Hints:
- 19% of the residues lie in helices and 31% in strands.
- It contains four helices and ten strands, in the order ββαβαββαβαββββ.
- The protein has helices spanning 43-48, 56-64, 99-109, 120-128; strands at 11-18, 22-24, 49-55, 76-80, 92-95, 114-118, 134-140, 148-149, 160-168, 171-178.
- The strands form two sheets. The chain has an eight-stranded mixed beta sheet with strand order 5-4-3-6-1-7-10-9. The chain has a two-stranded antiparallel ribbon with strand order 2-8.
Amino acid sequence: MSDVGTGTGKVVVNRAMSLDGFIAGPGHAMDWIFEYLTADAFPEVMAATGAMLVGRGTYEVAKRMADQDTVYDGGAQFVLTHEPPEEPDPTVTFLTCDIEEAVATARGAAGGKNLEILGADVAAQCLRRGLVDEILVYVLPVLLGDGVRFSPPTLGRIDLEPFGTTRSGAVTMLRFRVRKHPAVSRRT
């Protein structure tokens, strides 16, 4: 895992979420996010980010929304997928490896800054494997009623330690450290 003392960035799950716990609305709609959250709302997050690891579904949704004013330069972009698209995207590196290798590759490209994890499935994979240092959540003042939940029911329990709350306009950013549980050795 990362070590702040060595200048290595952290692995940060970054999510915008409705108050009722959805990160995307019905049909994976995410346009509602940009009614409240702009790329310049929390400049310290952008400044600390050196690369992004995104799931294929999130990449496709973002591609459909590219016409909106959602410029977000989080550094090098990596998309974890089972099948890269037939037409390459020169702004993205598509990875078909396992999650540990994908995180290591993207962290290497982050240049000592944070690696931002976007996408429900990729985030859940990282959390299950203990690869996440922090979770950053932008809580937006909207109830969606349905959509993609913050985490899948199969994720299991992850203990967190709150360490920051910041407000920008109508958006509240919550920050949590992921508590690491060392393996307990049992001797008989």
